[in-house]
Specification:
Rossmann fold; about 280 residues; 9 helices; about 40% helix; seven-stranded mixed beta sheet
């Protein structure tokens, strides 16, 4: 068995590695946990992608993001960690192509193994195994593979980014996981500080381009994250993916696929409809 017992006190006092597919995932999923950690020098963040596709236009003729977006997002990550009190040297950027991790499984696993061995964490945090983003799933499965082969022996905890699932009755996937392995961290005392750290990601919280109708992270979304505790699921790589989720396995698969791969096409269609619905000005 790979599963090990972990207590909240362990998380807040041990050498902690947070693996973030994109810059801002670490603060959204574990910002309060980092702020509550008793030794910020023992907290490390590993950013997997360069983040060059967020924000990006829905329609190709609308324009494009600034080519300096990866550098901007890295600086935002440094700013957020500095606000929390984590040393700059504790941030590592792997710079894989954003949105392409499923095509680089071998390289991803190899580089993750090297970084984990270098940092030597007591606890590792990764995205939830059924998160609604292909990069998040790829990161989780790469770490899971390292667990199963014995390359990673530290306990692995799963944090939640896309926990709102409109296609399930509860609309919150955290209610479908085993509650006896779900750790809850009360982050209310540091909610304001977490909000300030999220605000460091101006590329995600503000409108930067004329083609944007809303920021990537809306204020309503941020308020919800600050109001909730942070939940961490103790990962068990010996159990099949999906075995831990209650309810209809078939419907969960359908809901997951629809929400993971269907959101952007749906948003593109809506953007296209809006563009053609706008009245045109006829010059005389």
């Amino acid at each position: 068995m790979h599963e090990k017992s972990v207590a909240v006190d362990d998380i807040l006092s041990s050498r902690l590695l947070i693996i973030a597919p994109h810059m801002d995932d670490e603060v959204l999923g574990c910002g309060g946990t980092m702020l509550l950690h008793r030794s910020k020098e023992q907290v490390h963040c590993l950013y997997v992608t360069a983040g060059e596709r967020s924000p990006s236009p829905l329609l190709p003729w609308q324009g494009r993001a600034n080519q300096d977006l990866p550098q901007l997002r890295e600086q935002e990550a440094y700013n957020a960690l500095a606000h929390i009190g984590i040393p700059k040297d504790n941030a590592t950027f792997m710079r894989f192509a954003d949105g392409r991790l499923t095509n680089q499984k071998t390289q991803l696993a190899q580089q993750l193994q090297r970084e984990i061995e270098r940092i030597d964490p007591a606890i590792i945090c990764v995205p939830f195994h059924y998160d609604l983003h292909t990069d998040h799933i790829a990161v989780h499965r790469a770490v899971r593979k390292l667990q199963r082969t014995g390359a990673v022996t530290a306990p692995v905890l799963e944090y939640f980014i896309y926990f709102r699932w409109p296609l399930i009755r509860e609309r919150d996937i955290r209610r479908r996981v085993p509650q006896n392995r779900l750790l809850q961290i009360d982050t209310a005392p540091v909610a304001a500080a977490k909000g300030a750290a999220i605000a460091c990601y101006q590329s995600q919280t503000q409108i930067l381009y004329p083609w944007q109708e809303a920021p990537v992270l809306t204020q309503a979304n941020i308020r919800q994250r600050l109001a909730d505790p942070e939940y961490l699921l103790l990962s068990d790589p010996d159990r099949p993916l999906g075995a831990d989720l209650s309810g209809s396995a078939m419907w969960l698969r359908i809901a997951h696929l629809a929400q993971t791969y269907g959101k952007r096409p749906k948003d593109q269609l809506l953007a296209l409809c809006k563009q053609f619905a706008r009245p045109t000005t006829i010059q005389q």
